[in-house]
Design a protein that fits this description.
Length: 161
């Protein structure tokens, strides 16, 4: 089942939606925690790649086409290196997964609130058949009969060609 299905609500099956809610939240909380851990590990790898490249560039700047070691030039050279690009791409990938799972957790919190409101509506009779009081029903019938009688009293108009 996809997270889109997990955050949706079947308003005609509130009982099962409530039963599933806590286990869904736990499932995605665990996935989110794992994604955050992976994101932090990827960030460490990115920082490590950056530090190693910084050291290599400063030790042998001419190998990287640098004549004079200037901070801005070193940083610019680091982000152009393949090792850095690979580490950065990996970081972005796990960062996206982490963000999506955080969004799913927020959506599940919204789902809980929606389930609470839908349950309140159900308990208040919102989804029941309409109830019309006997007095209102009689009044409506009197008005309808009166209109029908008035219509019957009017002479019929003949069509002329």
């Amino acid at each position: 089942m996809s997270y889109e299905e997990d955050v949706s609500i079947d308003q005609h099956d509130l009982e099962n939606e409530w039963v599933r809610q806590s286990s869904l939240y736990l499932k995605y909380a665990e996935l989110s925690a794992q994604a955050t851990l992976e994101r932090d590990k990827a960030k460490e790898q990115l920082d490590l790649a950056q530090a190693e490249l910084d050291t290599l560039i400063r030790k042998n700047p001419t190998a990287y086409g640098i004549e004079k070691v200037v901070e801005a030039l070193v940083k610019s050279t680091i982000v152009q290196q393949e090792d850095y690009k690979i580490a950065y791409a990996a970081f972005l990938e796990v960062k996206e997964t982490d963000a999506v799972l955080s969004g799913v957790l927020k959506a599940l919190e919204h789902k809980k609130k929606a389930l609470e409101k839908l349950s309140e509506l159900w308990m208040a009779g919102y989804y029941s058949d309409p109830n019309i009081s006997k007095e209102a029903k009689q009044q409506t019938e009197r008005v309808n009969r009166k209109r029908q009688n008035e219509g019957l009293k009017r002479p019929l108009k003949r069509r002329t060609k």
